[in-house]
Amino acid sequence: MFRRLHMILAMLAVMAMVAAASPGAAAATGLKDVPGHWAEEAINTLLNMGVVQGYPDASFKPENPVTRAEFAKMVSLAFGYAPGASSQFADMANTWAQPYVAGLAKAEVINGYPDGTFRPSKGVTRAEAAAVLARVAGLGVIKPEMTTDWAPGYRDVTATHWAYVPVEVARRLDVVPLHFGLVFEPDRAATRAETAYMVRAMADAQFARGQVTGVNKTDAIVNVKNVAGNAQVLQLAPDVVVYRNGVGADIESIKKNDNVYAVGDPYGQSRFLIAEGAVTKEDITKKVSALTDGIITPEQVEALSRGKWDEARKGMSPALAGRLVEMGLTDEEAEALLTQDWARLPALGQTRLAEALGSELGVAPELVEALMARDWSAARNLAELEAAEMLLSRFLQMQ
Q1: What is the mean pLDDT, run by run of 10 residues, along the chain of 399 residues?
Q2: What is the CATH number of the domain that holds 235?
């Protein structure tokens, strides 16, 4: 798909250059409010490609917000998605944007709302634009649980935000306009200029898919035989994000014959590398570590698999103890479990049971615990004390 896409983009670029040399070029790009604008190059490129249009008054209105229907058309035309015959959304029938929306929905690039509508006239937010472009790049497979080692690039889009992954994908691929700075403002309406810039930047990204034929770890190079059967060299960026079999990895993990998919910036450096191949012990340990949200490291998982409890426990106990307490254990029980104090653990469990029964029955936990331990002497004394307290309480209430 991406090979066909780039062939289309290349043809459009040639057509744009031919058009620029013709007398009618000025009419295509001579919009009165585009010259000198920060997004001028991106806007003119998309104008020449036929992806966007100006208004009858020869303006582009770059600061106007973009609707969901308009953005769907931009994405569909820029990336060569085939239009659809009918839309699955209740409010798209017989609208001008129906073919574009239907095609993107079929390709699982855009989503509607839970009520079955698309709301074509609603403005596209910056977060929504980033989410769509991340899917266009084929990086929608990256889930939040796969990004625990990422550091947020924007103050207002942290790991808990629904668009955290696509926003970070856009940032790492240099798709985000520079004037956003340290804040992304995810709920802010995206303008015509901003979406033109983002679409143009994503169209300039480089894509590769193939099978690994060799790995040069020193120079951060992965050699592949691409889907066309040609040799291709992938130069990995210093901050490249690597996944192998669905877990975070590095170039050290990439194996010969792995199937890889790479997405890079316009300058030839791969920013994302997703590999699938034979499952290794390293894959398993990383997956188990990921399931614990990184509380147990892959090295500790491996130590546990070898029965090296003491080795695995180093540096793990405080974080794991906290998680055990969150799961309902007391601090003492968590400590007993981590130190393997099995003799102490049943006693602690007995104490908790006694507390629960005591609360339910309305008697002192010590009495329940004495009964559980069959310490009849202690139980009798405690029972007598309970009875005395009850009688005294009722006597005081009568006064």
Answers
A1: 43 40 42 95 95 94 97 97 89 93 95 94 97 96 90 95 97 95 96 97 95 96 95 96 90 94 93 90 66 66 64 64 67 69 63 67 70 66 65 56
A2: 2.40.50.320
Do 133 and 170 lie in a common domain?
yes
Q: Which residue has the tokens 């634009």?
A: 129
Q: What's the Cα-to-Cα distance from 227 to each of 99, 208, 345, rounded to whole Å?
A: 30, 8, 58
283 within some domain: no
Instruction: Mark which of 203, 221, 251 sits at the end of a domain.
Output: 203
Question: DSSP of 239-275, one letter per residue?
Answer: EEEEEETTEEE-GGG--TT-EEEEEE-TTSEEEEEEE
Q: What is the dihedral of CA 220, 270, 241, 138, to 10 degrees?
A: -150
**53 and 175 both lie in a single domain:** yes
Pairing of strands 269-276, 259-264: antiparallel
Strand-pair category, 269-276 with 231-244: parallel
Q: Which two tokens stand for residue 384?
A: 């007598």
Q: Is the domain of 124 the same as that of 144?
A: yes
Measured CA to CA, the distance from residue 345 to residue 335 in angstroms comes to 9
Residue with tokens 């014959």: 257
Cα end-to-end span (Å), the chain? 89
Based on DSSP, count helices (H) and strands (E) in the chain, helices before strands.
16, 6
Residues 38 and 71 in one domain: yes
Q: Report the distance separating Cα 237 and Cα 221, nearest Å.
A: 9
CB 81 within 8 A of CB 75: yes
| Pairing, β 247-249 against β 259-264 | unpaired
CA distances from 120 to 106, 146, 149 (A): 17, 32, 36
- Altogether, the residues listed in the chain come to a count of 399
Q: What domain range includes position 239?
A: 206-278
Are residues 192 and 93 both part of a single domain?
yes
Instruction: Please count the structural domains in the chain.
Output: 3
Our CA angle for 90, 94, 98, nearest 5°, is 75
Measured at the CA of 89, the angle between CA 88 and CA 94, to 5 degrees, comes to 95
